[in-house]
Amino acid sequence: MQIGGAKERAYVVENLAVLLGAGMDVLSAVSAVETQVRSVAMKQTLATIREELSNGAAIWRTLDAAKILPKRATYLVRLGEDSGRLAENLTLIAKQQEKDRLLTSKIRSAMVYPIFVLGLTIVVGLGVSWFILPRLSTVFGSLNVHLPAITKALIQFGAFLQDWGAIAVPATIVVIGGAIIVAFRRPGSRAALQGFALKIPAIRNVVLEVELTRFGFVLGTLLQAGLPVVEAVESLEQSSAIVQYKKLYARLRSDIEDGESFHASLRAYPKSNQLIPIPIQELIATGEQSGKLAEMLLRISVIYEQKTDQSTKNLSSILEPILLVIVWLGVLGVAVAIILPIYSLVGQFNP
User: Fold this and answer.
1) How far is it, in rounded angstroms, from Cα 212 to Cα 303?
2) What 3-state class would DSSP assign to 32?
3) How far is the C-alpha of 240 from the C-alpha of 216, rounded, in Å?
């Protein structure tokens, strides 16, 4: 279990980097940060770290035991501690964490409006079915009018909600929520869902751009900081949440251990161009040949970060017409179910 929230852990790392960069020793820096954090759990964690440091423990071991940092960041702390670049590497870790938070927040902000509209539509639809349709069934029944199939289906659904809605609706929410959680926790189903999402053009573009931004920034910064290539690729594999990319990075790590180059490994991987476009693979090859792979990867990160900004802004605009069509179909179905019996009733009064 990681102690504290993501922002609080980032706050600890950022302040340690600033204090160490200003010339303060590690023990004093940890004590100073300990006085500033708010949560009791983080205070206790930093107190434990301070005590272990005073007993001569290495800072990377204490941070690793406290689970404040991911594994790739612990590598950087260890490397910085051994090379005397601890403050610089902590600053680099803080930048990586901030980049991950920004990428995640961009996707979440792009999905807020569509999810809100879809949720509001479901709530309004349930309200109409629960409270209005049963009353319409009473009205249409007293008029002795023939009801179309769509009207009968809606009225039966409303009657079911009136009798069992208090049990059926919460149970349905729990079942669907549980199914989603289980689906995303099981590797096989998560891979299938992510594979399906990658086939949707709008979502695929955003996922690809976010992953390439992470690919360039994480791998570029780790290589620039002096981390061995195999460990850098392993850290990249751990940082990714997309199963398809994790498999690619695992294959890349294995091939590099066997002496292959990045470019050769990517070309040998089946359908690698769907995950990393051919122009990006050529840029990686150019970086390898020129000995400037880290700089080229960071340049790729900058390019795709700009594309990610634009794509996440456009995602809401792309999903909005789809949501409007869904809402329109729902309103049309209810309107037709109500209007058809009225026309039938008017026809009975027509001589």
Assistant:
1) 9
2) helix
3) 12
This prediction has a pTM of: 0.68
Distance CA 99, CA 324 (A): 33
Distance of CA 221 to the CA centre of its chain: 22
The answer, yes or no, to whether residue 79 has pLDDT greater than 70, is yes
Q: Which residues make Cβ contacts (< 8 Å) with residue 22, sequence separation at least 6?
A: none
Cα 194 to Cα 190: distance, rounded to the nearest angstrom: 6
What average pLDDT score do residues 163-176 get?
83
Q: Are 213 and 103 in contact (CB under 8 A)?
A: yes
Mean pLDDT of the chain: 79
Weakest mean pLDDT among 9-18, 133-142, 333-342: 133-142
Q: Whole-angstrom Cα distance, residue 156 to residue 162?
A: 10
- How many angstroms separate the CA atoms of 67 and 282, rounded? 37
Pairwise pLDDT comparison (184 vs 323), residue with the higher score: 323
Residue with tokens 């309103």: 331
Question: What's the pLDDT score for residue 302?
Answer: 86
Q: Which of 204, 195, 222 is nearest to 307 (CA)?
A: 204
Residue 281, CB-side half-sphere exposure with 13 Å CA sphere: 18
Q: Which H or E element spans position 85?
A: none
CB 216 within 8 A of CB 297: yes
HSE toward the beta carbon, residue 83, CA cutoff 13 A: 15
Taking only the tens place, the pLDDT of each residue in 107-129 is 777 777 778 877 887 888 777 77
Distance between CA 297 and CA 100 in Å, rounded?
16
Phi-psi region of 171 (alpha: psi -120 to 50; beta: other; left: phi over 0): alpha
Q: What is the pLDDT of residue 350?
A: 56
What radius of gyration, in Å, describes the C-alpha atoms of the chain? 28
Looking up tokens 């960041």 gives 73
Locate 179 and state its tokens: 């199914």
pLDDT value at residue 3: 43
Quick one: what percent of the chain has pLDDT higher than 90?
0
Q: What is the mean pLDDT of residues 6-16?
A: 78
Spell out a b/e string for 183-195, using b for 16 or more CB atoms within 10 Å of the CB, else e.
eeeeeeebeeebe
